[in-house]
Design goal:
Layout (H helix, E strand, L loop, with lengths): L7 H14 L32 H7 L2 E14 L4 E2 L17 E14 L3 E9 L1 H6 L10 E9 L4 E9 L19 H4 L4 E10 L4 E8 L14 E10 L2 E11 L14 E2 L2 E12 L4 E12 L3 E4 L2 E4 L5 E13 L4 E13 L14 E14 L2 E12 L4 E4 L5 E4 L1 E12 L1
Amino acid sequence: MKNLKNVLPILLLTSISFTALAQQPTVLASATEKETEKEKKASEKTEVIVEEPAAKKEDEEPAFTFSGSIDTYLHSSFKTQNAFYGGAYAPSTSFADLKGFSLGMVNLIASYAGEKAGFVGDIVLGPRGQAAVFGTASGQAIINQAYAYYKFSDKLTLNLGQFNTFLGYEVISPTVNFHYSTSYLFSWGPFNHTGARLDYAGENGFVAKLAVMNPTDIVEFNPVNTYTLGAQLGKTSDKGGIWLNFLYGDQDGTLEEGTVNADETSGGKLFQADVTLGYNLSETFYLGFNASMQSTAVGEEENNGSIVDSTGDPSSFLGFAVYPKLTLSESFAIGLRAEYFSVKNSHLEIFGLDGNGDGSVTAFTLSGNYKVGGLTFIPEFRVDMTSEDSFSTLSDSGVAEFKKMLPTLNLAAVYKF
């Protein structure tokens, strides 16, 4: 999530403190936990020691793996600027937003899977990585995931540390997404969490998660002393799966008497509900879907030395996206992302809004994936259309002409190892 307006001052002060002492948030950036079971066998009926085959011993040893990816791309918006995204030549979504030939990131992942415990260390370097891990007090912005886990049983696992979010359809790593650019639903939801998460894998494909975490994308420590609850319920099968996800908690802390500044404000609790699903409907046709709603309640503010409840209505966003994909051969597939995303009461100011703070965008992204070994080429054409003027081009006389449509073209190369 890119909104940390009230927390950033705290993080900045912490960053200055860290610098004085020592000149340290969506995988693979969402790395899969690979677990290898280790058997222990001892003979109680004989004293003869039988040496097991070397291959079997290797299978029983804890597994250390090293993997990763790099990505780079060419980007054009046909000289159209986004007035609501810092003048960027790109839509108001994460990554793939730099002009010309550009870098994505280098992603390096080390993982260790023992019989009962293991860890994942996930490092990102480059513009895409910095944009993904932006909520760091120290400013390091390279640790994408760093968590350890303990298996209570084959069904129940405890994860502790920083991990990518379990909400949404898309992820930080371009090796997992079919499209190179990202959706509004992904870009303005959570990226990373730091906390404790229980994972449950039951019978017949039933899965669940329960987590207690810092506010979204505040990853190194908790400067605001409030926490966020997360949960997931899902059902998977050989054809695909469906997942219901939830977040609830205060994201910027609460105001306190004696330390509050004049006219300081604080948002209320955030709630987000998200559904994600994807199924192979045939050997060549896949259909994915994501819908999400996020709202922030009215909070509190300083008024003449006192802390009072703010007035007004909650703010929110609502959106959905469909992801049909057709596989034409072992090396080539083509897919579409069709997305609608709306904002109420100035929840996000990422495109033009009307006088009530309401607005929406409809975006279509057509992408191809051509694979050669570990390399994937992704040609992509995208069109974003907003309800209010949000973009601009310069006329022949040098005057800005505002418009509601932004076309973009990407040609990306992603290598996974």
